[in-house]
Amino acid sequence: MRRRHELAELRKLLLSREQTLGELRAHLISFEGRYLRQVGLLYRRLDEWEQKIAELHGRAAEPESESDEWHAEDVSNSFDPLVLKTAYRDLVKLLHPDFAADADDEQRRTYLMSLANEAYRRQDIAAIRRMLSGYDPALDLTSARSSHEEAVRLSAMIFQVTQDLEAANLQIEELQRSESAKLQQRTLEAARQGRDLLAEMAARVNGSIGLAMRRYELDLSRKQRPSKGMSVESLVTAEIKL
Question: Which stretches are annotated as coiled coil (predicted)?
């Protein structure tokens, strides 16, 4: 009974952490979208002007060494929708309560299906794959088990849930340490002070774009300006005419 209670508590904790992970990922994706709209597109324009200046001088564009601004990264753990659907369908076939051997098995499968549905809703292919590899319904098909078999079965399931819990916690920590999360936190702190950090960043990049455009115009004008004095070819032509 104690091991069953331990397993139930671990499953509740895992569900809570998976929900936290999904919410954190959703918030960061939303913030990244805002960043890209307000700042990221401006950086692309600046890169284009820097490239034009470099090409004008016949060299490759150099990265801005002094820029410490964050460029958006994908934390959405991008996936192929078809792969997600296929994995989810395989998991449903494995877990569906209709295949339960008894009432206890049905209860476990119902709980696991709720986890699977939640993972599918937040498009978490990693969680679905963990469930696919970590749950063996064959362990629940025999209603009559010895105490030893039951202990082994519970130990195996507790171990797997513990592994899944560690994986979820690791993903949460990685997202919280990501550059997008750090910038989001800076943005929130600035908002408490009545400032719009992304708007300030956009204004700085716009200023850099203006400077780059002016620099390009000046450099292009110098290149197109006739050189003072006569070239060697001009001197030779002049002597022939004389």
Answer: 158-185
